[in-house]
Amino acid sequence: MSILILGGGIAGITAATYLGEQGQKVALIEREEGLGGRLNNLFSVYDLGISPKDFVSRQITKLKKFSNVDIFTCAELIETKGHVGNFNSKLKIKNSKPVKIKHGAIIIATGVNVSAPKMDCNSQKIINHTHLEDYISNNKIKRLSKVIFLCDFAKEDSQIIALSTLKNALLLREKLRCEVSVLSRNIKVAGKKFEQLYTAVREKGVIFSAVEGVDVEGLHLICDWLVIGESILPDHGTEVLSLTLGVERDKQGFFQNNNVHFMPNLSNRKGIFFAGACHIDAGLNDILDDSLTAAYAAHNLLEKNTIEIDEKTAEVDEEKCALCLTCIRSCPHKAIDIEFSREVGKKAAKIVEEACFGCGICASLCPSRAIQLREYEDEKILKLIG
Ligand SMILES: Cc1cc2nc3c(=O)[nH]c(=O)nc-3n(C[C@H](O)[C@H](O)[C@H](O)COP(=O)(O)OP(=O)(O)OC[C@H]3O[C@@H](n4cnc5c(N)ncnc54)[C@H](O)[C@@H]3O)c2cc1C
Ligand code: SF4
Ligand code: SF4
């Protein structure tokens, strides 16, 4: 059974490479002309040793050696039917006929979008992280005397922007030796090698000041540049993809993990996993680990060629089903279909056992009392409570 990976950034590439090494058949789908995603546009990553572009290009070369990994570029998913172990998808590919793929699992690795900081100010002195990084890394600026980073001014910044602030502050101290200050409410440094970077930045003489409720309009700062972070937003295709695949998003619109107490890569649907920036706010090191975890989970699921069914799945009494569709609308795991039942000679709700989590929501909502949860049938429960 093959695995479909959506998104050819570093998360998708890392997952596909792991699965390629395991001999798993993979179809990697990338919307753009080339693979690599965000790393193609970053100038540096702390402690990586080489440029992000070279890093990702090495990983692409490695990936392309696997004959069991098919790469589709300029491609997008337009339809997916079926359930864990038995998905059927249709792809739209530029200048080519649509392609149909049968696969057992999906890894979503579609990354994020970035938008310019929302500031009503025309000053030439205000700059965002991407431009600053370009100026320093490509030696476009030779002298600066003071730069201030303003973090969390509108809302709490993402970890990615905190990471970018520290990295660029360090670059400024090392390359231009100018005075650098970071004004923030609460800079978050949890993550692999993050604390180490923070210590290195402090040791280089960057000044951190805690500020609350900055009124940017009335702010009078003496500096050459004021650096403001971009907003990290869900990728523009996230909403459509969530509808196509029936996977949940959080309040900000990012893909949402099924349950924080379980493995973070699990979605609300069995057989669909998340990898990378599309569901975690993290730097490259954490993204590499996260993508391997998603790949491992998908491989583990399909390795035995059989899907294990939970003992406590729901069951429909087709005779009683009035086809009101309540259960279909309310199942959070998209585990109910409508099918024609030969036994009762009509259409009725049908639980897809391999996709059912046994949560019991459908059983509690069915107005015809047509659904029972195996091991927790009404009769058994009523006896227990007397
Ligand atoms: C501005 C910025 C600065 C950063 N700075 C640092 C840093 O200094 N240090 C650090 O460690 N990390 C940094 N990061 C974080 C991290 O390295 C990146 O976010 C990481 O590259 C994300 O990898 P990804 O594969 O999850 O997503 P991406 O690299 O965004 O890749 C996603 C891919 O999926 C494709 N795609 C999207 N939707 C679809 C679809 N429906 N079908 C097919 N393909 C699709 C996209 O075209 C893209 O190629 C930064 C991130 C940003 C945004
Ligand atoms: S909620 Fe009950 S009656 Fe309605 S479709 Fe589902 S099983 Fe049938
Ligand atoms: S018990 Fe019902 S609501 Fe819960 S996952 Fe199974 S089919 Fe869906």
Order of helices and strands: EHEHEEEEEEEHEHEHEEEHEHEHEEHEH
Shape: elongated
Number of DSSP strand runs: 19
Instruction: Please compute the radius of gyration using only Cα atoms.
Output: 25 Å
Enumerate the spans where pLDDT stays under 50 for 5 or more consecutive residues.
none
Strand content: 15-25%
Mind explaining what this structure looks like?
The chain starts with a strand and ends with a helix. The mean pLDDT is 91. It has helices at residues 10-21, 52-64, 129-137, 159-175, 194-203, 238-245, 284-302, 326-330, 361-365, 378-385, and strands spanning 3-6, 26-29, 69-72, 75-83, 86-93, 99-103, 105-108, 112-115, 126-128, 146-150, 179-184, 207-210, 225-228, 231-234, 272-274, 314-316, 336-341, 346-351, 371-373. The relative contact order is 0.14. It has a 5-stranded parallel sheet with strand order 3-2-1-7-15, with helices on one face. A 5-stranded parallel sheet has the order 9-13-10-11-12. The radius of gyration is 25 Å and the shape is elongated. β1, α1 and β2 (26-29) form a beta-alpha-beta unit. By secondary structure, it is of the alpha/beta class. α1 (10-21) packs across α7 (284-302) and α4 (159-175) runs parallel beside α5. The chain folds into 3 domains: 3-113 and 233-302, FAD/NAD(P)-binding domain (3-Layer(bba) Sandwich); 117-229, FAD/NAD(P)-binding domain; 314-385, Alpha-Beta Plaits (2-Layer Sandwich), CATH 3.30.70. Flavin-adenine dinucleotide (FAD) binds at residues 6-12, 29-32, 37-39, 42, 45-46, 76, 109-112, 114, 130, 160, 163-164, 167, 230, 232, 235, 237, 241, 276-278, 283-284, 287.
